[in-house]
């Protein structure tokens, strides 16, 4: 399977993974053939891409590091928590805590798996799904730092609720496609203060978790907000959440810009090391993140085209590639699987949005 944007090329293709709504209900089941009507419906609901089956990715799995059930439950918990606060109701943090515990358990049982962001999300649920991803990615980094359970728990709760302060920011500002005015930007920059004030009022949420919401936009060079703290004054847990927050944000579609491929996001994070983010934490994080997700179409330094078949633990930049063309990009009748860890002369030089015409014409 592979991920593709929702445009005319998906019509007639078979859906490889079910599409879920915010309530966890299935909108379209895996296996259905995509029609123009289905595509229009998904686009109207804010979806931008789907997973499909095709000949060249047959048998290639795109796995998540947490189960669909756990992810949907966590998204729903964040949604209910934020909506309750917006209505002036008392926050019940029990569902948030249960979700964090479940995510920790699943990650610890799959500690050797690289973190791949394989969940398709739509704009309307961005804040909620983003919160769950930031929690998950923060915990992946926390586990790699050998945090004990209590440390992971506080990190997870704070990361999952890091954006709760956005409940106090007008929706029109959060969803604005055009450039923000200075006044609107100042309003956005208040959400860490709002989040801290909300969380510290709840005795069952630790002050450390509340400080993650407070400090997740601080940067080690002092350029962040709301207080412009330097490296020594920012909690390590907040530094972790900041890395996860930015990485997830730039690798997901927004109304004002398309997502970056993971390998390009990797380079963005590298450039921010030592200025915005802690150097050692970024290196640890990037060692645990998939750079070329399974199903990604790539061009090798040999000129051959292939798709990523699977990952190599501890070598996330050297996956296994299913080569489907020769060096002149002519389709091969028998595919080859190349382990880049065993072929040092070969490199991935480009991520392609789709197959070359000569290849796609054979599907």
Polypeptide structure, described:
- There is one protein chain.
- This protein is of the alpha+beta class and 363 residues long.
- It folds into three domains: 2-53, Molybdopterin biosynthesis moea protein, domain 2, CATH 3.90.105.10; 68-287, Hypothetical protein af1432; 297-360.
- The chain is 39% helix and 13% strand.
- The protein is built from 13 helices and ten strands.
- A five-stranded antiparallel β-sheet has the order 9-8-7-6-10, with no helix packed on it. A three-stranded antiparallel β-sheet has the order 1-5-2, with no helix packed on it.
- Helix 3 packs across helix 5 (149-160).
- The radius of gyration is 21 Å and the shape is globular.
- The two termini are 14 Å apart.
- The model has no long low-confidence stretch (mean pLDDT 89).
Judging by the overall fold, what is the CATH architecture of the largest domain?
A: Orthogonal Bundle
Q: What global shape is seen?
A: globular
Give the helix level as a range of percent. 25-40%
CATH superfamily of the largest domain: Hypothetical protein af1432
**CATH topology-level fold name of the largest domain:** Hypothetical protein af1432
Number of domains: 3
Class per helix and strand makeup: alpha+beta
Report strand %. Answer: 5-15%
Biggest β-sheet description? 5 strands, antiparallel
Distance between the termini: 14 Å
Oligomer: single chain
CATH class of the largest domain: Mainly Alpha
């Amino acid at each position: 399977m592979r991920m593709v944007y929702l445009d005319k090329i998906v019509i007639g293709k078979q859906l490889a993974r079910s599409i879920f709504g915010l309530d966890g209900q299935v909108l379209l089941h895996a296996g259905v053939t995509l029609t123009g009507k289905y595509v229009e419906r998904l686009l109207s609901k804010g979806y931008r891409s789907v997973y499909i089956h095709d000949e060249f990715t047959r048998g290639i799995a795109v796995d998540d590091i947490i189960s669909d059930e756990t992810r949907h439950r966590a998204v729903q918990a964040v949604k209910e928590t934020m909506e309750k606060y917006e209505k002036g109701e008392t926050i019940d943090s029990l569902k948030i805590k249960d979700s964090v515990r479940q995510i920790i358990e699943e990650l610890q049982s799959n500690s050797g798996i690289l973190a791949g962001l394989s969940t398709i999300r739509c704009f309307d649920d961005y804040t909620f799904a983003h919160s769950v991803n930031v929690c998950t990615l923060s915990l992946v980094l926390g586990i790699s730092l050998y945090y004990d359970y209590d440390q992971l728990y506080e990190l997870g709760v704070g990361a999952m609720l890091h954006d709760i302060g956005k409940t106090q920011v007008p929706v029109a500002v959060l969803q604005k496609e055009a450039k923000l005015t200075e006044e609107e930007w100042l309003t956005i920059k208040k959400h860490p203060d709002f989040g801290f004030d909300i969380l510290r009022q709840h005795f069952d949420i630790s002050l450390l978790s509340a400080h993650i919401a407070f400090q997740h936009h601080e940067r080690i060079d002092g350029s962040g907000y709301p207080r412009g703290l330097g490296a020594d004054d920012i909690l390590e847990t907040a530094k972790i959440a900041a890395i996860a927050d930015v990485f997830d944000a730039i690798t997901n579609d927004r109304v004002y810009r398309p997502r970056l491929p993971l390998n390009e996001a990797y380079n963005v994070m590298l450039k921010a090391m030592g200025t915005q983010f802690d150097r050692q934490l970024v290196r640890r994080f990037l060692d645990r993140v998939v750079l070329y997700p399974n199903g990604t179409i790539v061009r090798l330094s040999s000129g051959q085209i292939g798709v990523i078949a699977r990952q190599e633990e501890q070598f996330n930049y050297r996956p296994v590639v299913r080569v489907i063309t020769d060096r002149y990009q002519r389709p091969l009748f028998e595919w080859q699987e190349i382990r880049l860890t065993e072929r040092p002369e070969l490199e991935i030089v480009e991520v392609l949005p789709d197959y070359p015409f000569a290849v796609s014409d054979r599907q």
